[in-house]
Amino acid sequence: MKRSQRLVALTNHFLESPFEHVQLPYFSSKFKASKSSISEDLDIIDDMFRNEGIGYLKRIAGASGGVKYIPDYPKEKSIEIIDELCRLLEDPVRILPGGYLYMSDILGDPKTVRKIGRVFASAFAHLDIDVVITVATKGIPLAYAVATFLDVPVVIVRRDTKVTEGSSVSINYVSGNSRIQTMVLPKRSLKEGSNVCIIDDFMKAGGTITGMKSLLEEFHANVKAIGVLAEADDEEDERVVDDYTSLLKITNVDTRGKQIEVKRGNFNS
Amino acid sequence: MKRSQRLVALTNHFLESPFEHVQLPYFSSKFKASKSSISEDLDIIDDMFRNEGIGYLKRIAGASGGVKYIPDYPKEKSIEIIDELCRLLEDPVRILPGGYLYMSDILGDPKTVRKIGRVFASAFAHLDIDVVITVATKGIPLAYAVATFLDVPVVIVRRDTKVTEGSSVSINYVSGNSRIQTMVLPKRSLKEGSNVCIIDDFMKAGGTITGMKSLLEEFHANVKAIGVLAEADDEEDERVVDDYTSLLKITNVDTRGKQIEVKRGNFNS
């Protein structure tokens, strides 16, 4: 096989399998090429991945050596995406009664969701995350996008007990509007002592996140990171969570004047 | 830029943007290469994509001509994935009380979900789908995977009214266990007359799918395809939906003998 053909196949392989460790002999035999040819291929791919801002190839030396693709957005690119989201969200037609914001179209676009996933995954890549956790429903696509780029599974906390998942652990918690709510996680869905990353779409006072943290304590999980797409700025006084990463901060939702301000979250600070 | 470098960048571009139509001059100017060089690059990529079984590049001739990547699993590869899923699901530890099957680990693995998405997207690629629809919760990751490879948005039908989505259309329907349930879709989430593809994880008698179809009628949507990951075989007599594509058929769940049989669905027939 020619180098040009190998480069296409290898690029596809790495993009499909982030964080997967592959030893060079595997590629040598798959493509019937010498180890040194493969090694040169990897240098070209590494260069171009960096150039395109989508990450890099990490080479591991030694007997069990090999290579893996680390998806990694440069900070500038993440900021660019965040600013793009700010512009999208500032559209006043998004304002709903009660000062809520219509975001379903943005969260319904797989490409945008993938970009957001990449931003979070790049920020959390060094934290040795075992699993991404979210609560049904709106955080689910974001959680999968993050998990794809971290190459880990997703576990979904539910607000209702479903018979189809076996024995579960459940907790009650108080949400923002002082209602008592329930959260449930099937016992076999999460190993004890896992390193977890919590992902959600929106945070007001942080009641939901706090609920998830209590539930995760029951599994002796280590919450290594909390990522929320957007936080409501005006709730800052009453916030019960402080160790989170937000991409966007929604301020001054003026339902009457039909105005809204969306700023960068604490991601960059 | 050298051909080898262009090939890496172009491969990444196509894989990230299925179905996106790009005119050749765009690549010419981005990579500072002649149209004929780019054209040769595309031939190499097209060859290798077919070779790897991940689809092909479609060239459009003429003044507004260009190229787009059509993700397309060859049928054999889809069948391979279906058979792999059968083996995974036949594990008797999956049997839950009531004859249900534990599938959350499989649906929680982004790589597996992506593969399933590719299988459905390949089957439905010619149907001119505008949007993928699912009902919360378990079908969501599958819906996003399908939508990614069809390059269309996802719309999520909910079972509860959320204040955060504005005015909605809701219907009542009767589910398998004869309970009356509600389904809700925000008005602004779906354009009238859209071509839709319904995706769900599991189908017994088909009450949920029927409910979605009635709801979609309110939006004058055309249901072009229905894809379910697994169907329960023993409910076939009472089935109220017949125009669906299933990857797996679950038969003979023997809770006592701890046995279960999972066969290919109607995908291949």
**Mean of residue pLDDT of chain A?**
91
The CATH topology of the largest domain in chain A comes to Rossmann fold
Task: Specify the oligomeric state.
Answer: homodimer
Biggest β-sheet strands, sense, barrel of chain A: 6 strands, mixed
What is the SS-derived class of chain A? alpha/beta
Distance between the termini of chain A: 48 Å
How are the strands of the largest sheet of chain A arranged?
6-5-9-10-11-12
Tally of helical segments of chain A: 8
SSE order of chain A, as H and E? HHHEEHEEHHEHEEEEHEEE
Radius of gyration of chain A: 21 Å
DSSP summary, beta strand count of chain A: 12
**Biggest interface, residues from each chain:** A-B, 52 and 53 residues
Q: In CATH terms, what is the architecture of the largest domain in chain A?
A: 3-Layer(aba) Sandwich
- Percentage of residues assigned to helices of chain A: 25-40%
> What are the low-pLDDT stretches of chain A, counting only 5+ consecutive residues below 50?
none
Number of domains of chain A: 2
- Text of the CATH class of the largest domain in chain A: Alpha Beta
The amount of beta strand of chain A, in percent, is: 25-35%
Shape of chain A: globular
Topology:
2 copies of one chain form a homodimer.
Chain A: H1 3-16, H2 24-31, H3 35-52, E1 56-60, E2 66-70, H4 75-89, E3 95-96, E4 100-101, H5 104-107, H6 110-124, E5 131-135, H7 140-150, E6 154-157, E7 168-174, E8 180-186, E9 195-203, H8 207-217, E10 222-232, E11 245-254, E12 259-264
Parallel strand pairs in A: 5-6, 5-9, 9-10, 10-11
Antiparallel strand pairs in A: 1-2, 3-4, 7-8, 11-12
Helix pairs in contact in A: 1-3, 2-3, 4-6, 6-7
